[in-house]
Amino acid sequence: MDAYGPAPRRVTRQVRVGNVLVGGGAPVVVQSMTNTDTADVAATVKQVADLWRAGSELVRVTVNTAAAAAAVPRIVERLRMMSVEVPVIGDFHYNGHQLLAREPACAQALAKYRINPGNVGFGNKRDTQFAQLIEFALRHDKPVRIGANWGSLDQDLATRLMDENARRAEPWDASRVLREALIRSALDSAQRAIELGLPAERIILSAKVSGVQELVAVYRDLSARSDFALHLGLTEAGIGSKGIVASSAALAVLLQEGIGDTIRISLTPEPGASRTQEVIVAQELLQTLGLRAFTPMVTACPGCGRTTSEFFQQLAKVVQEHVREKMPQWKITHPGAEHLTLAVMGCVVNGPGESRHADIGISLPGTGEAPAAPVFVDGEKTVTLRGDGIAADFVAIIDDYVERKYGRAAAHSG
């Protein structure tokens, strides 16, 4: 292991979800979830497409009513007609066995089923209803995520483990018992699915909690006790910076240790904000850790008393938005452009140095500095920009560089 890099990825079984591979050494997969009423076909199609265009590689939808289940095949068909080739996952709670029985077209259209062992059924109905869901997965050749959750824990299992703990010579504290219940819920359910005939290569596990330290402890244990592919996510992470920081803190630790095959950042959207923010945060987390590359990374200084002008902030925003907007097309026509590094710096202190470290960098004039902005390409100063057209000129330099280095003509000449 490189002393400055993540640990080798944990070896897990590989699961195919539609056209996406999860686990088994495949890159960590980004997924997200809609918050539309699934029965509203138009709204759900639009949001799935938006999430996919933002970079979500799997999208989960709620399937909670007969109307939602009936809508799923139409949603998948419309997405296909739009050439949005993203696997759609069905999220089932309480009544999934009934909905799949009533709407077999839904069972076939979905790429994967998500089952929560804490609410698949209660009492003596639990085993029967779980078995029915696994039977649908077998019949339609679908993988399953068995997703235990701290907020909907199997209470019978938790009570049984509490009773066992009370008989220990040295009882565990309550939080450890509950973590064990969460892990056992996922592992025992996976074993039951295998006994029912579902191959281990079609099972993904998750065990979500809302506390950072608890999540790290749960997944370290879960990964040590199984070789199933694992989905990571801090459930109910929160809104805004709190949700971003909490999710990043938890998932970064696990990913750095080689744990995790697919991730979701479960953000509460700001009022009126796009659902796609959770996809962007997940991508940036993986790219910052050096595990994936999705879009050119922009380094920008935070500003200080030397940078009283806001122009460098505006330019950084323009550059970030430009490359993210261009990336869906570049991904097809200019493969490799996602590895491009950019720097937008605000003064002479670190500006030239950071600019030289990036593929393309610009050092804008700080307070009291000469009104000139040197541009560095591959470590060499190439031009000095001045005047009102700096933003347009710098974006043009980026586009020209991408064309020369990553365009098909450049690839063929290489």
UniProtKB/TrEMBL annotation:
Pfam families: GcpE, GcpE_C. Pathway: Isoprenoid biosynthesis; isopentenyl diphosphate biosynthesis via DXP pathway; isopentenyl diphosphate from 1-deoxy-D-xylulose 5-phosphate: step 5/6. Residues 12-282 form the IspG TIM-barrel domain. The keyword Thylakoid does not apply. The keyword Iron-sulfur applies. [4Fe-4S] cluster binds at C301, C304, C347, E354. Binds 1 [4Fe-4S] cluster. Its cofactor is [4Fe-4S] cluster. GO terms for molecular function: 4 iron, 4 sulfur cluster binding; 4-hydroxy-3-methylbut-2-en-1-yl diphosphate synthase activity (ferredoxin); 4-hydroxy-3-methylbut-2-enyl-diphosphate synthase activity (flavodoxin); iron ion binding. It catalyses: (2E)-4-hydroxy-3-methylbut-2-enyl diphosphate + oxidized [flavodoxin] + H2O + 2 H(+) = 2-C-methyl-D-erythritol 2,4-cyclic diphosphate + reduced [flavodoxin]. Coiled coil: none annotated. Residues 298-399 form the IspG C-terminal domain. Its EC number is 1.17.7.3. Keywords: 4Fe-4S, Iron, Iron-sulfur, Isoprene biosynthesis, Metal-binding, Oxidoreductase. GO terms for biological process: isopentenyl diphosphate biosynthetic process, methylerythritol 4-phosphate pathway; terpenoid biosynthetic process. HAMAP family: IspG. Belongs to the IspG family. Converts 2C-methyl-D-erythritol 2,4-cyclodiphosphate (ME-2,4cPP) into 1-hydroxy-2-methyl-2-(E)-butenyl 4-diphosphate. This is 4-hydroxy-3-methylbut-2-en-1-yl diphosphate synthase (flavodoxin). It comes from Cognatiluteimonas weifangensis.
